[in-house]
Every structure is written in structure tokens, then in C-alpha cells.
């Protein structure tokens, strides 16, 4: 489902990936590594937020460089940062992202908003959210979108106990694991049915 072939990438002359290749199928992959090993950078490369210096990345045969728009419709990255659009409300942030993904289901998004108890903050500016609310906003969107590859950086950070339990249930769902390639980073054992673990 996700194919990385001979990827090369460096920061300011410091090589992070050299001839790096990886193929992932549906299921959950835990991306492990020390701070600075390149976990978040790899996710951003796969998400299209960073461009490889050389090499290819493809989802379901769609090349990230040759078909960038079609590629990005197949993938979603849930990281720690929100796009620098501080004038948007939470509702507008959702609307903006949902419009980018054909087939996005507002009912599915509403179900996630119910589960994470976010309906009460929809008309607030994104900048007013607490750390936990911010994380729940990102996860609500990530879990609702009809993408082939779902990337989640430190999914459990900032969540309360109830939200952690709900997120584990969603990620462990057999139907989701059968249709999505889910890649997550976590400094602690994610306690999920893993397809594999990759050490960087």
C-alpha cells in the first residue's frame, strides 16, 4: 500500500536517510527510534510536507512526485502542529480539510466529534484550544477521513484517559486495520495489534 524506494534526505548536510526503502501493507506499523532518529521527518516526507532529495514514495501505485494531488488525497498526517491559520474557528478548520478529500463523510466526522466531545468548541478560534482539545481536533479529522494511509505522530500525547481508551479502540478496529495502512510514532509501547515494528 505504501512503497518507499531508495529515499535520500538530509538536513543542512546531515544525512537522515540514505537509500532507504520500505514497503508497508494495511495494518498498524509502530515507527520507533530515539529523538532525532528521523521519525517525524519520515512521516512528513510520506505526507508530502517535505520532498525527498532523491528516491520515490508511492501509495497504491500513485507516485508522490508525478501525481502530487492524487497522492495527497490518499494520505493524512496528524502531527503536533496546526496549519498557521489562527483566524479560523475549529469548525472552519474541519471544513477546510474535509473539502480536500473526495468522499469525506460528515456523518463520520460528527461521530468522532461526539466521541471526543468537541461539539462545544466548534465555533471557538483554534488558538483557544487546550493541548488536549487540539489533539482531539486532529484525531477526529484523522479517524474520519477516507484515506489509504494514516500517519499519526505521538497519538496519545495530551489525551485524557477516556480519549486514550477510545483512540485505542478505533485504531484496533479490524475493519480499519484491513483497509488502512496506519503508521504511528510513540515513545511508549502503543499496546495495539501491530502488523510490524520499524526501528530507525
From TrEMBL:
Keyword annotations from UniProtKB, A to Z: ATP-binding, Cell membrane, Membrane, Nucleotide-binding
Record bears the keyword Mitochondrion: no
SMART domains linked: AAA
InterPro entries noted in UniProt: AAA+_ATPase, ABC_transporter-like_ATP-bd, P-loop_NTPase
PROSITE patterns in alphabetical order: ABC_TRANSPORTER_2
Keyword Nucleotide-binding applies: yes
Cleaved signal peptide residues: none
GO molecular function, one term: ATP hydrolysis activity
Alphabetized Pfam families for the sequence: ABC_tran
Domain ABC transporter stretches: 2-198
Name of the protein in its database record: ATP-binding cassette domain-containing protein
Species whose genome carries this gene: Pseudoduganella rivuli
